[in-house]
Known about the structure:
Shape: globular
Helix content: 25-40%
CATH superfamily of the largest domain: ATP-grasp fold, B domain
Bound molecules: adenosine-5'-diphosphate, magnesium ion
Strand content: 25-35%
Number of strands: 18
Distance between the termini: 25 Å
Structural class: alpha+beta
Largest sheet: 6 strands, antiparallel
CATH topology of the largest domain: D-amino Acid Aminotransferase, Chain A, domain 1
Mean pLDDT: 92
CATH architecture of the largest domain: 2-Layer Sandwich
Low-confidence stretches: none
Radius of gyration: 22 Å
Amino acid sequence: xxxxxxxxxxxxxxxNHALAGRHGFEYLPFYTIxxxxxxxxxxFFSPRMLPARNGKINAFTWDRTRKSYQLGEYEIxxxxxxxxxxxxxxxxxxxxxxxxxxxxxxxxxxxxDKWEVHQHLSKNPDTSQYLPVTAQFSSPHQMHKWLEQYxxxxxxxxxxxxxxxxxxxxxxxxxxxxxRTENRCxxxxxxxxxxxxxxxxxxxxxxYLIQEGIPLLAILEQPVDFxxxxxxxxxxxxxxxxxxxxxxxxxxxxxxxxxxxxxxDAQEVLAKVFDPDMAQFLYAELGKCALQIAGEMESMGPxxxxxxxxxxxxxxxTIKFIEANGRDLRITFRNAQxxxxxxHTFTNPILYGLYLLGxxxxxxxxxxxxxxx
Length: 373
Ligand SMILES: Nc1ncnc2c1ncn2[C@@H]1O[C@H](COP(=O)(O)OP(=O)(O)O)[C@@H](O)[C@H]1O
Ligand SMILES: [Mg+2]
């Protein structure tokens, strides 16, 4: 039976795409190249290939010379980079898929509840300074109060949305403007006060957050926010792997690619809005904020080491936290033509996996591979 140093657990659909030669958001060869350059090997498998039996697993490797995937039988790798959506509630069930084998599943939790994250970050002044005013949605009365206080409010499902469930509300004279996503676009409606209960009813069905609207930077009325990748790397420390801007369509309530936003170079965007010194300062501040947030979120689960943070810069130049994604699709970096950053988001998790192996009790990975590194 063959041995692999690392495994990457990817979605069935991502693996199917890769095997068919059409990569989705997971560009698996980047993982292989990073591992090979560090003198290690990595295998890929998906949930349909689980549970692992008797310490064995069927998995694919990427062959660089043949440019194709090879199926083989492997010992369960000692460390596995998780790229599947798992929430805290199913973490135990997921771990059981590997039996009693002591593999390290890193990034085992990839879906965070937005309210839990908010509460966690509000405990530390280093991170609470970045938080917009936020509460759990509780009642129509609360919503009316917030609308009196803030020009815009956001209503967001606590769990996962890609911008699809996010709504913006503003009060107009005797009516409300609601902006929400429909057919990949930001749509705006005016509704009278008596139609609000329909919306409120929907929000009683699943947990929602209510949040003050952050006055986002805008270029020609197009809202701008930022995706910052914070990952642990070879030294086991948080690093900033990439920063790009997401620019929404004019007047849009969200910048997500799924709502018609596009990813562009962050420094170019900042240079359009601020003078060169301020632009440089804010770019560095985005990284600093992301490192603080990542460091604080680390204690929310075992081996959290890969976060895609949505951060905003207000029109006055203040940084605000929007949300943390536990499985960054990383395509914003590709779409913004920042290929090095994009590639780096695949390299870092591999190097972190090797770092974990070096630390694992009884591991001989460091000794046997140090010459190759
Ligand atoms: N409080 C807010 N103020 C201004 N814009 C916001 C706010 N919350 C969300 N947005 C916009 O909506 C987008 C999606 O919200 P986010 O919290 O990231 O949820 P999702 O999980 O749907 O991506 C953000 O990238 C941002 O453009
Ligand atoms: Mg988001």
